[in-house]
Write a structure and sequence with these properties.
- The protein has 37 helices and six strands.
- Helix 6 runs antiparallel to helix 7.
Length: 901
């Protein structure tokens, strides 16, 4: 607070006043497509999905840019970043008037989205002008600039009637450019930046700014903001449509009712900031979540008719919320959401005074993404359930989760302050015997685990580790089966009446890879937090959702494409399991056997792809479950298939694997670690290099597995390729499981170099045989690609524990031998899991690359040439950093010499 001693009240008021005005105008620009988008859709003849993407693009980009704009505000000063952001946004908004095609509008919309990033800039700038005890009020006033959304809804229609939608864009762009000039003239650099310049303090680096993002607390704040802000944006977009469909009011009435919600969810934010200063932000958050749960419970209850069989005959009555009570309820809901938005950002400058930009940017980004994701989810729930109030039921579950998490966090702090005695008691007295390990024949938690002790390993450890390994393999096999099931199902959908285009089919094949890779990022850190036994059980049970969903969805050709998109995303649960499974198994085995164990876990787990591609084409030809699973579907050649079996066949196996995981697996106390302890890997250069290399090997394996069936059928429709495609994943999985000894003998880096050389040659072979239209040559080259990916999967993972084992003792010389061992195991597990998460995006990008290449050029050759170039880059990185003699880091079988920052 020393920076604020020389600040006068006039400067504070100018910073807050002009900052709020600038944010209000930016928010008006951010929501401009809510008005002009309708006219643009009419002019271009856009479909509903194209229109939805156009409207959502600024919301998405405005959310994603908040993190970077917040960091730059801390580094360069909010004043200069705010001005630059407004000028660039004004330019992009003006460029809308020159757009003539849909891609041009999307490109301009990306720039318009910068307006949404202004929030992160303003939070950083305004907070530095006020002491902690007044920051809540100041940020509450600033955040009331959300009212810009209501301003656009009120004013823009009149401008559009008079001057057309181009006039709206020009007026909004001109006003924003003028505001940038005014802001620059009448404001000053914040005291934080001035003090840093006067003291010649170095500008904080990106890494320093991102450091607090390791804290789980930051992500908890993000969940809060996902509801209070993300749900606000989502409802502002959704309510007009909801009111027209449910209450049959006209567009003007619906617009005014939605604007009332926007106003209450914006203007009272200033009051929320003041309350947070006076009563405490935590108290305000309890009010927000508590009253929001009550209101959403009322709103989520659908109109219902009841019949009670009374003594004198049936008694009929019904319940429903009429229009006027509904408007009052959403107005009150908006009021509490306003309070919550202010309370969330009251926390940030208090907990992270030197990282307001980064933390505020991340929290704002996640909240903004809620405005993008939730409307899509609302539509999916409506299609799936047919119940209009399902959107409020989803928000009820969301705010309930946030409330429970917040309360548990508060209770944890209170219990920590009281000591550890309470933590040693069971939650319920009846469960006291469960907490006495002596009564269990096989304890779930292994209190003593020393795999490097030869005597312990031979007498006890090996048996337990082997049992956990084989249960893990079984669970992982079914996870891969569900993850990749679309690679076969998608190829069959057109045969049973689904009129999806080739581009839509490739999207379905690619989306499980996208969601699976994203889930892996989170799954990477779950085992040390929750324990391998619990997490394996839960993550395996989650596979039942897509398995059941696919079984029901494919039976009706009228099932909306959007439902298939959602199910494809849910299949990503299977992809996420790999990260947690590998992290868990790594803790059980000694270093000498770790590579072989991980190779078996991954390689035999990868067999799930081959098992699925072999089994599904068989089970869909017969009614395996009889009438329980529904009747067959007619195919175009007059035959019948039971495509629902592609999903239902896994249900009993998943159920058995879930039970086996809970009853047969164990937890290791040494494996427990917080997210902050694991997040150190983000500072390791080797983590990112191994992400690149593993993307080249495993990313290719899983991407080829997802895209090869559809690609083969697309390029060689005269060949029944589906009866052969399972061989590729089979070869890749077995080569991974049984070639780990090659990396052990000759060195992981050396083997990896030759792997990428082989993949380049095989990819060129695929191109050659495509030009000759030779299926068997094409097939043989892909089998070679699968083989090399398997060898590379084993060799890259063999490198990780050796690399970490070398640099940890040098970077942390004060650690004792046992502490160093534990740290190496935790960091190796985290890097192993995280690299697998990043690499899994190959399951999305490779099929999508095929589809895009075919759509643009008419063939997959452009995508394959891109793979050749990428493998060349991976080869050079491996050679320069790990393999070449005298390189930056030479990796041998006996260890590495590593120059590490």
């Amino acid at each position: 607070m020393a920076d604020l001693l020389s600040v006068n009240r006039s400067d504070q008021q100018r910073a807050l006043g002009f900052g709020t005005a600038a944010f209000t105008l930016c928010f008006s620009v951010w929501t401009i497509f809510a008005i002009i988008g309708v006219e643009i859709q009419r002019e271009l003849g856009l479909s509903e999905s194209e229109f939805g993407l156009l409207v959502a693009t600024p919301v998405l980009t405005g959310s994603l840019t908040r993190l970077f704009l917040g960091i730059w505000s801390e580094q360069l000063g909010g004043r200069v970043v705010f001005v630059c952001q407004m000028l660039l946004t004004a330019l992009a908004t003006w460029m809308l008037t020159y757009a003539t095609t849909y891609p041009m509008f999307l490109l301009a919309a990306l720039g318009v989205g910068l307006a949404g990033g202004s929030f992160a800039i303003g939070v950083s700038y305004v907070s530095h002008w006020y002491p902690k005890e007044r920051q809540g009020t100041a940020l509450g006033i600033f955040g009331a600039g959300n009212v810009g959304a209501a301003i656009t809804k009120f004013v823009a229609p009149f401008v559009m009637v008079a001057f057309g939608w181009q006039g709206v864009a020009e007026v909004w762009a001109g006003a924003l450019a003028l505001m940038a000039v005014i802001f620059w003239i009448f404001t000053k650099d914040d005291p934080h930046v001035v003090a840093r310049r006067q003291g010649n303090t170095p500008t904080p680096s990106f890494r320093e700014q991102l450091a607090p993002l390791r804290n789980l607390q930051v992500w908890r704040f993000s969940l809060y903001y996902f509801f209070v802000f993300g749900a606000f944006v989502a409802l502002a977009l959704w309510l007009p449509h909801y009111l027209i469909d449910v209450y049959h009011v006209d567009i003007e009435t619906a617009g005014m009712a939605a604007a009332a919600f926007s106003l209450s969810a914006s203007l009272f934010r200033a009051y929320g900031g003041n309350l947070s200063d006076r009563r405490g932000a935590r108290t305000v958050m309890y009010w927000t979540f508590g009253f929001s749960m009550l209101l959403l419970l009322m709103l989520s209850y659908p109109p219902t008719e009841y019949t009670i069989h009374g003594a004198r005959g049936p008694i009929h009555f019904e319940t429903q919320m009429d229009f006027a009570p509904f408007v009052i309820a959403i107005f009150v809901l908006g009021f509490f959401m306003s309070l919550g938005k202010a309370a969330v950002f009251k926390h940030i400058p208090v907990y992270y005074p030197d990282n307001v930009g980064a933390v505020g940017g991340l929290v704002g980004m996640v909240g903004g993404l809620g405005g993008f994701v939730l409307p899509i989810t609302f539509g999916a729930l409506l299609d799936l359930t047919g119940i209009y109030t399902s959107c409020f039921a989803l928000l009820f579950l969301l705010v309930g989760t946030a409330l429970v998490w917040m309360h548990l966090s508060v209770r944890q702090m209170e219990r920590a302050a009281q000591g550890t005695a309470l933590d040693q008691l069971p939650q319920l007295p009846e469960m006291q015997p469960v907490h006495i390990p002596e009564i269990h024949s096989r304890p779930a938690v292994l209190d003593k685990w020393h795999p490097e002790d030869a005597e312990f390993w031979a007498s006890t450890g090996k048996r337990i580790a082997t049992r956990n390994l084989w249960i893990s393999i079984v669970c992982l096999l079914f996870a891969f089966s569900v993850w990749m099931v679309w690679s076969v199902v998608v190829a069959k959908l057109p045969l049973i009446g689904f009129g999806f285009s080739s581009e839509q089919l490739f999207w379905l094949a690619a989306l499980p890879g996208l969601s699976g890779a994203t889930f892996r990022i989170f799954y990477s850190f779950m085992v040390p937090i929750f324990g391998g036994r619990l997490w394996t059980t839960v993550s395996t049970a989650l596979l039942l959702l897509p398995a059941y969903g696919i079984g029901y969805a494919v039976q009706n050709p009228e099932t909306p494409y959007f439902i298939f998109l959602v199910l494809a995303l849910l299949c990503g649960f299977g992809g996420g399991n790999f990260a947690s499974s590998m992290a868990n198994i790594g803790f059980f085995f000694p270093k000498a056997e770790k590579g072989a164990a991980l190779g078996k876990n991954a390689g035999l787990g990868n067999l799930g792809v081959s098992v699925m591609q072999f089994l599904v084409p068989i089970v869909i030809t017969t009614g395996v479950f009889g009438a329980l699973a529904g009747g067959p579907q007619q195919i175009t050649d007059g035959g019948e298939i039971w495509l629902q079996n592609a999903g239902f066949i896994w249900v009993p196996f998943i159920g058995a694997a879930t039970i086996a995981a809970w009853l047969g697996m164990n937890d290791i106390p040494d494996a427990k670690a917080s997210f902050a302890e694991q997040a150190v890997i983000f500072q390791r250069r080797d983590n990112w290099l191994m992400c690149l290399l593993y993307t080249g090997t495993f990313g290719s394996f899983i991407g080829f597995s997802a895209g090869f069936p559809l690609l083969a059928q697309n390029q060689f429709p005269e060949v029944n390729s589906l009866q052969f495609v399972f061989l590729g994943p089979l070869i890749g999985a077995l080569s991974r499981a049984w070639t780990g000894w090659v990396a052990d003998k000759y060195g992981g880096a050396r083997v990896t170099v030759w792997v990428f050389a082989g993949m380049i040659a095989a990819a060129l072979g695929v191109l050659f045989f495509l030009s000759l239209a030779s299926f068997w040559g094409f097939f043989a080259m892909f089998m070679a690609l699968f083989f090399f990916t398997g060898v590379g999967n084993a060799s890259t993972f063999q490198m990780i524990p050796n690399i970490v084992g070398d640099y940890v003792p040098r970077m942390m010389p004060d650690l004792g031998k046992e502490q160093a061992r534990r740290h190496v195991e935790r960091e190796s597990a985290a890097i192993t899991a995280f690299t697998s998460a990043i690499a899994a995006y190959g399951a999305f990008f490779i099929p999508k690359s095929y589809g895009t290449s075919i759509g643009i050029t008419g063939g997959p050759e452009a995508a394959l040439w891109g793979f050749v170039v990428f493998y060349g880059v991976c080869l050079m990185v491996t050679w320069v950093f790990y393999s070449r003699k005298g390189g930056v880091a030479r990796y041998r079988t006996t260890g590495i010499r590593h120059a590490h920052f």
